[in-house]
Amino acid sequence: MNNQRLKILVVDDTKSNIEVLEGILSAEYDVYVALNGEKAVELTPKINPDIILLDIMMPVMDGYQTLTKLKELHLVDSIPVIFLTAKMDPKSEETGLNLGAVDYITKPFSPSLVRLRIKNQLEFKKHRDKLSELVEERTDSLKKTLKVMLMSLGSLAEYRDNETGGHIRRTQFLVRRLAEVLRHNPKYQKDLPNQEVIEHYATAAPLHDIGKVGIQDNILRKPSKLTDDEMEQMKSHTTLGYEVLLSATKELKNDPMVVVAANIAKAHHEKWDGTGYPEGLKGEEIPLGARLMAVADVYDALVSKRVYKSAFPHNTAVAIIIEGRGKHFDPDVVDAFLTFAHDLPAFYEEHKD
Fold this sequence. Notes:
The chain is α/β, with parallel strands linked by helices. It folds into 2 domains: about 100 residues, Response regulator (Rossmann fold), CATH 3.40.50; about 210 residues, Hypothetical protein af1432 (Orthogonal Bundle), CATH 1.10.3210.10. It is built from 15 helices and 5 strands. A 5-stranded parallel sheet has the order 2-1-3-4-5, with helices on both faces. Helix 6 packs antiparallel against helix 7. It starts with 6 loop residues before the first strand and ends with a helix.
């Protein structure tokens, strides 16, 4: 709350009651009026009052019903509601308090008590809002700390496998773009409800190869084809990464970003048709983050030069991604990829190794 006048919404169908309350409050507050419950529900999100004075005995929608509706719509999550009533029997008071009212003001109104009750509730709201701000700031700080920690862990894989260059940053970009496109698909609105969740996937993406810190140099950097035994050891980087993440962030294992990162690390080599590793997961058994990373990882590997291969042209890489639709890759993810694939050559020119 600042130096601006605070706003009070009075909900009452009796003109004389409104006039009395306006006379008591208008010198200090901006007073808004709703003559019935339906109007109160309509006005509350428009004026965002600091407090609501709500009459109980009203036709069509009484005060109890009005408060119930306001709470169902989450319109008064941070707004105190005081009931106005001519009766103060214990049952009525209990009903109102159970619904979430913070206090009662009885009729006929005592000007000094009305002002005092409103002042007390507004002071309490001020301190509560300040506490909420502090909690939010602290939560944001912890999220930033976790994000930096996860990014640092991701960098370990890059330092360990110096052939990847900008691989983790490019795949992070691809995962974010894929998630942003899929968010508009009704099928994924529950998994990708907002940009914050999308950032969980983008933040987790650089950790997909963290398990490579446990792979021997002679295998990790071998320029020729791996033997069957060496390939099995290389494949173990998926489970190693999963275990590293859960171990390194044990106390945070239920944090969404950590869970997404662990799932990506473990399952980004799974295939849509069930022929991938380490568990042979099939279709939507594969975590969404891993399905996003599968497309990002393969495309980046195809168009990037490695000690064992030359870079493929963009069109060839896109054709390979399309050819893997429904076999290697989630069809929906491939379709999302194709919506922005034409932009990738320019992006890769700016972010080449």
